[in-house]
Amino acid sequence: MNATQFPAGLNDNQFEIFEVEGRTFALNNGKRLSYEEFPEALLTLIDNIIVSSPKVIAALNKLNIRCPHERRKQFIKCNLSNFDYTADISACMKKIVTEYVSCPVRGNCEYEGKLCTGISAPNGKVSLRELRIMGLIRNGFYDKEICDTLNIALDTLKTTKKNIQRKFRIQRKAMIASVATINQIF
């Protein structure tokens, strides 16, 4: 992103949804809207996404989240809550783009991949192991440190890095760090 780009919703009618200190907001038409100010059409769109996914419904039910507002907020928290300058909801409110959300329980959450969204690369879906390795590479870990941290063999790491590179169509380890940064993988 260059310095002349603005976040979605700052100068247009798209929605950039985000969370700050547990509160849900959207940037739209240059205004920060609290969840309580979300237009009905936006809430309906989120409801439609939720009800169209049996995995999401099952996860919310298992979490015992029954209130429509709380269901929406949980869905947003797991799928839309990064402030990443890109539109989560189109201006016409017909298109929703979920994003990878860095979550403190990633890798330990029984609802991962059911309630939340992973990352899709040009050549396939990125696995949890690949996400963890990308995050460690982004944070400057050497191969041996990654192997020790994840308790995996060096050959496993090499194979996984090759898979990451193939999925993202990149050539070097440094590019893995760049892709991780762009996708906010920590």
- How many structural domains? 2
**Which range does the strand content fall in?**
5-15%
Class of secondary structure makeup: mainly alpha
User: Which runs of at least 5 residues are low in confidence (pLDDT < 50)?
Assistant: none
| Backbone CA Rg | 18 Å
Order of strands, widest sheet? 1-2-3
Give the number of helices: 7
Indicate the overall shape. globular
What is the overall pLDDT average? 89
End-to-end separation in angstroms reads 19 Å
Order of helices and strands: EEEHHHEEHHHH
The strand count comes to: 5
Helix content: 40-55%
Describe the largest sheet: 3 strands, antiparallel
Describe this structure in words.
With 186 residues, this protein is mainly alpha-helical. It has 2 domains: 1-117, no CATH class; 120-182, Winged helix-like DNA-binding domain superfamily/Winged helix DNA-binding domain (Arc Repressor Mutant, subunit A), CATH 1.10.10. It is built from 7 helices and 5 strands; from the N terminus they run βββαααββαααα. It has a 3-stranded antiparallel beta sheet. Strands 4-5 form a two-stranded antiparallel sheet. A hairpin with a 2-residue loop joins strand 2 (23-28) and strand 3. The longest helix has 15 residues, at 154-168. The radius of gyration is 18 Å and the shape is globular. The protein starts with 15 loop residues before the first strand and ends with a helix. The mean pLDDT is 89.
Write the layout of secondary structure elements.
Elements: E1 16-20, E2 23-28, E3 31-34, H1 40-51, H2 54-62, H3 68-79, E4 120-121, E5 124-125, H4 128-138, H5 143-150, H6 154-168, H7 173-182
Antiparallel strand pairs: 1-2, 2-3, 4-5
Helix pairs in contact: 1-3, 4-6, 4-7, 6-7
